[in-house]
Amino acid sequence: MNPLIVGEDIWKVYRVGDVEVQALRGVSVTIERGEFVAIMGSSGSGKSTLMNILGCLDQPTKGRYRLNGVEVGQLRPDQLAEIRNQQIGFVFQSFNLIPRTSALENAQLPLFYRGLSLKEQRTLASAALQRVGLKGREHHSPTQLSGGQQQRVAIARALVTAPSLLLADEPTGNLDTESSQDIMGILEGLNRDGMTVILVTHEVDIAAYASREIVVKDGQILSDRATKGRSHAVGA
Ligand code: ADP
Ligand code: MG
Predict the structure, then answer these.
(1) CB neighbours of 32 closer than 8 A, spacing ≥ 6?
(2) 59-83: pLDDT as tens digits
(3) Intra-chain end-to-end CA distance of the chain, in Å
């Protein structure tokens, strides 16, 4: 089978007025199905830019990106949106939930876009909320939930479509240590059940949950190595 992700010599150049910012400078990376990858690097190194390209939110300026065997670089915006809805779940640092809207409705949203019946939406969204430990909180709105619980709703929303790839950009960046561990435990469980997870973080103890660590610096891959993963880590 094809690898899930094949990036070849990916460049991303932003133009801001007269200034050119080379956010990615020739990144090549292959990620197989079922991997749990942490992308690390200091602020401004290009992590989010890479994540946005891998997640089909953005396209390379130069280079090739294949997801599930499909060349993404040439697709139209509506085709990219279709791929995102069908194959990718996103989790962000700031949760990005819809305010004044229940956890259930937030988790239903990707299914609404898929045109599923309301009944199917509710059934699948309830199951996803249960998966992240929020059974009984379906009708709470984000303001009635803690940060960790809000991020769990966001994870439920990301996995409700059964994506092949889960992308998490600094998912614990706004959370305390205990909630961060909860969230990472959930991502770890999803990976154990077969989901490919790519995580952006600049925290070493968060990256330790992954089994592969890619370090980005100045828009290039500085190192790419297998790590033991948390289950083998000291104290785990
Ligand atoms: P990281 O996520 O590692 O902090 P980013 O991928 O957000 O890094 O940014 C990489 C570089 O690209 C930085 O220099 C940043 O200022 C620049 N950059 C990111 N997004 C844009 C944009 N939309 N327009 C212009 N420059 C950008
Ligand atoms: Mg970033």
Answers:
(1) 3, 4, 196
(2) 999 999 999 999 998 899 999 999 9
(3) 33
C-alpha 148: how far from chain center: 16
Q: What is the CA radius of gyration of the chain?
A: 18
In angstroms, the Cα distances linking 6 to 62, 131, 148, 222 are 14, 30, 33, 18
Q: Ligand 1 — pocket residues by CB below 6 A?
A: 14, 16, 21, 23, 41, 43-49
Pocket probe for ligand 1: among 21, 61, 201, the residue whose CB has the most ligand atoms within 8 Å is 21
**What is the Å distance from ligand 1's center to 21 Cα?**
8
pLDDT per position as a tens digit, 132-189 = 999 999 999 999 999 999 999 999 999 999 999 999 999 999 999 999 999 999 999 9
The DSSP letter of residue 125 is H
Alpha-carbon span 46 to 134, nearest angstrom: 34
pLDDT interval class at 1 (50, 70, 90): confident
Q: d(Cα 161, Cα 97) in Å, to the nearest integer?
A: 16
Checking phi first, is residue 58 left (phi over 0); if not, alpha (psi -120 to 50) or beta?
beta
Domains and CATH numbers, the chain: 5-235 (3.40.50.300)
At residue 233, the pLDDT reads: 43
In Å, how far are 29, 122, 147, 220, 227 from 224, measured between CA atoms?
9, 41, 32, 11, 10
